Amino acid sequence: MSHSKGLKDVFSYNSWIHAVSGASGALVAMSAFYPLDTVRSRLQLEDPEKRKNQSTWDVLRQLVTEEGFSTLYRGLVPVLESLCISNFVYFYTFHSLKAMRQTGRGQSAIKDLLMGAVAGVVNVLSTTPCWVVNTRLKMKGIKASGGEDRAPYTNLFQGLLYVAQKEGISGLWAGTIPSLVLVINPALQFMMYEGLKRRLVKMYGELPALGYFLAGAVAKAFATVLTYPLQLIQTKMRHGDRNANLPPNAGTIEILLFLLKSHGPAGLFRGLEAKLLQTVLTAALMFATYEKIAKYVTMILTRQVKAK
Fold first, then answer.
1. Residue 265 exposed, middle or buried by CB count within 10 Å (0-12, 13-18, 19+)
2. CA pair distance 24, 221, nearest whole angstrom
3. Close Cβ partners of 266 (under 8 Å, ≥ 6 residues apart)
4. Considering the chain, what is the average pLDDT of its residues?
5. Tally of CA atoms within 13 A in the half-sphere of 267 that contains its CB
6. Quick check: 34 and 303 in contact, CB under 8 A?
7. pLDDT(88) > 90
8. Which of 128, 147, 260, 263 has a C-alpha 20 to 30 A away from that of 28?
């Protein structure tokens, strides 16, 4: 009986609604703030001396002046494709686990953290190849240290085939180790968001879109600052370009120590301003959109059931 109930919770309309709503919210949010993600990638991957002491807005203006406005949206389509898949997997897994673990005592911060971590592991293992290709497409035309273009392809499918052929299956999962460690980022984000939402709803009742926006912003800022150095290393590993002073197969610890030695502690937080702007605004808009879509779809389905 409990086994069939567990399967019913996993393959439920509720999980599907949350997954589609989360994917839709991510598409809206990333489309709105994608140029900030382009700046973040440039600051993380380019030579630190190239844009030394430049703010996010300085880099935006410089990119438009030197490379044209379109460079701000380079790689947008495959990013949206990957983001749609990634958020669908994450929201579906998280809310399926939430339905299975729901008890009379309700949710707690620890439960949210654990479910977020499990959902993150599932997401990383299933979608890392998409993000490897996306990182390289975003830097397309920017030569690696060896002089070659890291992305001689134009879309996600071509990129997946190219990386698999040139670097093997392992190349598609480059940066998986820091990515697995980084499941703590969305786990912390969801723990903080669910906790804030529960508290705000208890205090004020049904929240407006702004309430969800602010809760999402606070939750993402909290998670991003705590995990940023690993995000920086993850991006470098996905791009596949290594500093001449690092071996081709340099791992997480080697890159971390190299950055500390070369640029000091500040080197581990290069691009943080752009990352915070992009990820906080994107997450905030994503959660606000997600909540509204989920409520709207649930309302429609409920009315249809009652009508029958």
1. exposed
2. 21
3. none
4. 81
5. 17
6. no
7. yes
8. 128
Q: Could you give the CA distance from residue 222 to residue 185 in angstroms, rounded to a whole number?
A: 9
Beta carbons within 8 Å of 220's beta carbon, 6+ residues apart: 189, 279, 280, 282, 283, 284
CA Rg, the chain, in Å?
20
Per the model's pLDDT, the better-predicted residue between 53 and 91 turns out to be 91
Tokens 């990383």 belong to 124
Gap between the Cα atoms of 308 and 296, Å rounded: 19
Q: How much is the pLDDT for 218?
A: 92
pLDDT at residue number 58: 86
Check if the beta carbon of residue 119 is closer than 8 Å to that of residue 93.
yes
pTM of the predicted model as reported, rounded to 2 decimal places: 0.71
End-to-end CA distance of the chain: 27
Distance from the Cα of residue 122 to its chain's centroid: 14
Find tokens 């890159």 and name the residue. Answer: 255
Q: CA 98, 104, 106, 111: dihedral to nearest 10 degrees?
A: -60
Q: What DSSP line would sit under 67-83, residue for residue?
A: H-GGGGGTTHHHHHHHH
